[in-house]
Please model this.
Amino acid sequence: MQIDEINKLIKSSELPSILNQDILSKLAEICKINNYKKNDVIYSRGDRVTNFLMLTSGECELVDSNKRSIRTLGKNDFFGLASLLSNSTKNYDLVVRSDATALELNQSDLDLLTDHHPNVKDRLLDIINIRLFNPEINSALKKIAKDIDEETIQELKKDLSWKTLQDSEILFNEGDPGDSCYIIMSGRVQAIKNHGKENEFLLGELNRGDIIGDMALITEEKRSATIKSTKLTRLIYFSKETFNSVMYNNPKALMGVSRALINRLKYNDSKGGQKNLVIGIISLENELNTNCFLDFFTKNIKHFGSTNIIDEKNINSSEDLFNFEILIENIISDTNFLILKSNDLSNTDWKSKILQYSDKILILGNQNQLKNISSEERTIFNNYQNIDTDKLCLLINHAGKSEIPENTNSIKSIRNNIKAFHLKKISETDVKRIIRFITNNTIGLVLGGGGAKGFAHLGLYKAMNELEIPIDVIGGTSAGSIIAAQIALGLSLDEIIKLNKSVNKLKMFKEYGFPYISLIKSKRIEKAAKLVGKNRNIEDLWIPFFAPATDLTNSKLKIFESGPVWEAIRSSGALPGIVVPHFKNKSALVDGGVLNNLPVDIMREKYNGNIISSSCSKDESDSTNLKGIPNQLGLFLEKLFKKGGFNKKYNYVPTITELILKMSVVSSSRLTEENIKLSNLYLELPVENYGLTDFKDSAMLNMIDIGYKYSLEKLEEYKKNLII
Model:
């Protein structure tokens, strides 16, 4: 008699939708019916789950250690299936709130069933997935079609399948057939154009609840981008055949799909918002330094959004990865930042789990220790192979012992060239800078070209120091690259002024030679670049730095982000026609100002955040009374012997040097206008009365003073909106 009742209960559940009749019959033979009274405790917190329960009547509650109700279970709700499949315990009590009856299957019987039917566990997991993610699934399906009715949703859900992507696994490639629609249930993926090619670029990131490929359901076009996971990611999907069979029988829902798609394309917010991030911190440092870093980090990241923290003490060691994944997704859905950290620094299993489930990973290590990869590090990161290195950030702690970093390129290269940041020591100031990087709130400084007028940028630097506005990343073109490199080296203003006085003594633009490639020989230019670069590599700078140069050979912009500092500033400042190009790798590299004199767009693309840009190329003294084609020899002699009358007569006559200098600025003026708009704060330093070749100590000091006074007031106002 009981088996008939069990059969009836099974048929009324959702089990028949996922299991065949043979398995259902076997289930009816091994399941039991149990009755419970009000206030009975079916399971206590910490007990190992040995039975899978499906309530057939009554109500139960999941109650935590503080006696708070976590969830109410009613008819046809499940309990213990995930724990049974993963041999884990529960962190709450199961208490009967009204007399209840449950259909139960114990662990040993389930094991016997799966021995004969290996796919049973997978099919049962599908039920767990759908139940756990049911609100997200419904929401996503309604996002695909706003007017979709409940009946159509249920029809689509019947044929949903699950897909799991490991870290850095590709879902599909650009150009593949658009034969399915995916919805992200957990994790994160990137949409990449031209994946694996030289012109590869990131279109954006998608996470929980986002839809992939719904356009293909209507247009039947091929995939427009490659989708790659950045961590363990789970998706549901249905095929175009399923979509067609359901939707074309429901014209109203089909029209809803079309309207929803059009609206998402039309009103897509390209700016985006603060993305919820899972931030993993894996320390290779000692306990003292690790705790110091964690204290500063957890204290200050709260300024940028709500924060939650998980370590191995919060997780039951017997919980499987599936349950851990659900826990993370539930927390991060209501939190800006979830931090995964270690209490036990020797627990490599937990550190590996941090790696698997984090969007960004901070790896803290000591400069000397990081010269080699330890066995622990090799185990955690799989020797840095088959992993998305873009999400890894190596934090090199110099413990106050380095005047300037060394051998960073070697440290990076053995780790598959992951990003690296230098910490002078584990101080609150340095940790705040890392937080600004990881939360997309960097303070970037972009310095434009302008010859000797670039000295005025140092006035801005002085004002920022005085107002305690930090510089997290810096870049510049031509003269701006030289000043940017000096700042990135970590030099004080007095040290920079002293260095530039030494450069001015070289009288770089007085070294005339035979004008075959350029007007000046450029040996002094190269000497000046090496004097500033101090035989350092860009990777060894305290502040991340970049400098654009123009590759005349290949007609494109080259961005220096690695290699010798002197080569970057030598190339970026090589004014074509005046200075000999820097020849490297069969290319002729000249002034970056030819293509991009104020590289805010580069800063925006690479670092985003808050960008302060500074220009000093404006010149109001270039109106001239010349007409037609003047006699150049006559002009030269007239200027030589009648200087006062010459200036009064012509007002201004450009030399070939000045023409080339100005041309390098004018050639990218349209892009400069666009880059000004990309800046959060743009400063046009008023040094128009100085010349592009005024490399004199007195002029330098005057321009620094002008830049300082002009910048100070504007920075004071701007600082009010910064989180530092």
